[in-house]
Design a protein that fits this description.
The protein is about 70% helix and about 5% strand. By secondary structure, it is mainly alpha-helical. Helix 5 crosses helix 9, helix 6 packs across helix 8 and helix 6 runs antiparallel to helix 9. It is elongated, with a radius of gyration of 33 Å.
Length: about 280
């Protein structure tokens, strides 16, 4: 299936059979030409004969497609779990760091394999242009940030509930002392009582201030109801986290593919040439 895609992707750029073979080799494919032409993909363990591929992909059909005597509409790939490509290596930069010739050869093979994987991944992602890939990256980023904001909002609410529980616990445990302190009218008696119970009264003051800031003017919620509310939020958070992890990975994968395609298409170089013509 990957070989079918590669053939479909290179044929529009080819005019002759020789062009077609050269394009396959440029992607890291090995080609055996004989009575039965066979191709081995960069990561494949064995060759695949073109005659074993679906209709439209044997040598005769491909030659006909190249000459224009055969009209052929490639079928869309089924959903697969394509291997995500790794970033291409900047070989010149690595060589400048003192890497040896052996490294150059390894990196060259690595890059060819990643180019092939990138093409397959891009196609299986439903992308037809670099601009569309850029948009998919932006969409994936928005999706990742949206889920992340949802998780953060849940965690902030959980922190609020934790803080409220803490203050309710302190206030509930010591409110008898605090209420007596507030009921005292004589300033001297009040001060004496305060000094004797400072460690209890101060936390209650902080708790009451917190309740007022949160808008609790009447009856406070029970600890049990707050625990239930926190547990429901935790269910939502646990449910959202895998979605964030998947969105984050999707964003990273698309960024790698975009970076590779940027280098493969020499977009930076073309952009500079375009600016130069503009001047």
């Amino acid at each position: 299936e990957q070989l079918v895609f590669v053939i479909d992707s290179v044929l529009p750029k080819c005019k002759t059979w020789e062009d077609f073979i050269a394009e396959l080799k440029s992607l890291g494919c090995e080609v055996k030409q004989g009575a039965h032409i066979a191709v081995k993909m960069p990561d494949a363990k064995r060759f695949a004969r073109l005659s074993s591929l679906p209709d439209g992909y044997d040598e005769k059909s491909i030659r006909a497609r190249l000459s224009g005597t055969m009209k052929f509409e490639p079928k869309p790939l089924r959903e697969t779990n394509a291997k995500v490509p790794k970033l291409l290596i900047d070989i010149q930069e690595k060589m400048a760091e003192g890497k040896g010739e052996g490294y150059r050869q390894w990196a060259s093979v690595h890059n060819v394999k990643q180019m092939a994987k990138t093409l397959i991944y891009v196609k299986e992602s439903g992308v037809d242009s670099y601009e569309e890939l850029e948009q998919k990256c932006r969409d994936a980023c928005d999706e990742m940030m949206s889920v992340n904001e949802k998780i953060k909002a849940i965690e902030i609410e959980q922190q609020r509930i934790n803080e409220l529980q803490k203050h309710i616990g302190v206030y509930g445990k010591n409110r008898t002392v605090y209420n007596k302190y507030r009921s005292l009218k004589n300033p001297k008696d009040k001060q004496v009582y305060y000094e004797a119970n400072r460690a209890v009264i101060e936390p209650c003051k902080v708790a009451v201030k917190y309740f007022d800031a949160q808008g609790y003017k009447g009856k406070l919620p029970s600890i049990n109801s707050l625990k239930e509310e926190w547990a429901e939020l935790e269910k939502e958070r646990r449910k959202a986290y895998p979605a964030y992890k998947a969105a984050n990975q999707k964003f990273k994968d698309l960024c790698v593919a975009k970076s590779n395609l940027y280098d493969m298409l020499d977009i930076g170089k073309k952009h500079q040439q375009s600016r130069g013509r503009g001047r």
